[in-house]
Amino acid sequence: MAGPKKVFLSYVADTRAFVDAFCEQLFDINGRLRRIDWLIDNVTPGKDINADIAERIAAADVMVSFICEKYCRRMGADELRMGVLQRDRSSGEPIIIVPITLGIDGRDWWRSFKTDAPEEAALRNIADKPFFRPGTNSWVLPDVEGIHAIHDLRDWLCQADQPPPAGTAA
Fold first, then answer.
1. Contact 35, 87 (CB under 8 A)
2. Where are the alpha helices (DSSP H) in the chain?
3. Bigger pLDDT: 68 or 89?
4. 86: alpha, beta or left, given left = phi > 0 and alpha = psi -120 to 50?
5. Radius of gyration of the chain, Cα coordinates, nearest whole angstrom
6. Residue 27 buriedness (CB in 10 A; 0-12 / 13-18 / 19+)
7. pLDDT band at residue 159, thresholds of 50, 70 and 90?
8. CB atoms within 10 A of CB 139
């Protein structure tokens, strides 16, 4: 076994409660996925935060981006841009980008972002998974259906040779 897949989470502080609830479902006791974002494993004191984040994204197998209305104006958008650069890796598998949209503005930004991305990034066909009240920027915690979608996503991420499950992000 090659070890757990490394997952980098990209989000803004306003969505931390949602991210925590999402992570409770994504990361299971089997240890198939390992979280490597900088809020879990602190940056070494004295080290440049941006350089450390770039290294973590470069090492990640998966990047889950929680895109709300503030995401595009914060560091999260820069993290996603770094992740997109990893889609064109010359060696190994490209990073899997998983967009989770947490509001209508976040979803609109994601759609614009993937349309404007370079063709080689292959983002145009990546679906997002919405977790918000229709037509609003009010995100909602995962309900039973959302929890099942997260479990399906987790299981798919752990099986590299399978297509993504119907109706989920990836």
1. no
2. 16-26, 49-59, 75-85, 104-116, 144-157
3. 68
4. alpha
5. 15
6. middle
7. confident
8. 21
